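Quick sanity check, MYO5B protein:
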Amino acid sequence: SGIVLVAINPYEQLPIYEQDVIYAYSGQNMGDMDPHIFAVAEEAYKQMARSVKNQSIIVSGESGAGKTVSAKYAMRFFATVGGSASETNIEAKVLASSPIMEAIGNAKTTRNDNSSRFGKYIQIGFDKRYHIIGANMRTYLLEKSRVVFQAEDERNYHIFYQLCASSSLPEFKDLGLSKCWHIPVLCW
């Protein structure tokens, strides 16, 4: 294991993830500046270029800790220092690549109204000049228990509520959703 960063989700936007902060951390050595997700991303990027070997950043935490947002900031850093931020907006493309997956894999929890109930493995490809050329996102460990049980004030996966809310549409007639449970549905 290499560097460990403990980050806390402040549950509000702070000006510590702006473009100028990315440039401030770019090219710096670990420890020269305050601990930051950009410092971890810079070290991984530098090690990839220096050793010409794959690098990994593991983002872990409990529900609502800000894992998806931290991964998004790391990808924004790579896109910016890799010279492809304005061309591709890679982090937006990777994270928004599958709205269906979000509906199937996200649910309301007591800590987060749109909590991801699965793990994500994001692989970013770089060319020989270390510019991003593509990305792939895989999901794993879908929380299957949520299908049959939810704690108080929590919900099943969004897709079930979306299907029930749409049960009267003609294209859903053959799905047999007319006998949907009478459950409250959030408007999207």
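Posting the structure with no commentary besides this: The CA atoms of residues 20 and 95 lie 23 Å apart.
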